Amino acid sequence: MSDTPVIGVLALQGDVREHLVALATADAVARPVRRPEELAEVDGLVLPGGESTTISKLAVLFGVMEPLRARVRDGLPVYGTCAGMILLADKILDPRSGQETVGGIDMIVRRNAFGRQNESFEAAVDIKGVEGDPVEGVFIRAPWVESVGATAEVLAEHEGHIVAVRQGNALATSFHPELTGDHRMHRLFADMVRANRAAESL
Prior knowledge:
Elements: E1 6-10, H1 16-25, E2 29-33, H2 36-39, E3 44-47, H3 52-61, H4 65-73, E4 78-81, H5 83-88, E5 89-92, E6 105-110, E7 121-125, E8 135-139, E9 144-148, E10 153-158, E11 161-167, E12 170-173, H6 184-201
Parallel strand pairs: 1-2, 1-3, 3-4, 4-12, 5-6
Antiparallel strand pairs: 6-9, 7-8, 10-11, 11-12
């Protein structure tokens, strides 16, 4: 078995191309995922930023929501950024009508918590498990985590708000690491995927 993991990016809406580039630099085979048969072929999946309600509705429309929920329950490594964080939350504090989540992290998320598009900002974030300088995070209509359950680990906070969380094979950040050229978060996720593949092969 090759050590190079195949990591998909849910390509229904959002900044898909940037994630594909970042994953390639993290020594992964990166490919877009839109349909259940494409989901079945990946070792891990990124849920990108974008509009969480739109992504969830398109996931249902393309028939990928239920297979994705099932694979996440079964331990598929998954990484959600911004809207992807909202999709991985077990509960949204202020959901839009018809908005669904994939779930997978025992956390409550508040949408657009850091403000509107014109209040976007960049900030250096110290991430537990990422060595070196702080990660430069781009916050665009970003959520934050109101609270986490006992099984979720807080990896980072910004101004007293939780902005990075991990629970088992699920990772989520409020910010967009794919927009900065610093791909350490993608390397962290690729390492999670490799570790999961190794465990499954035992």
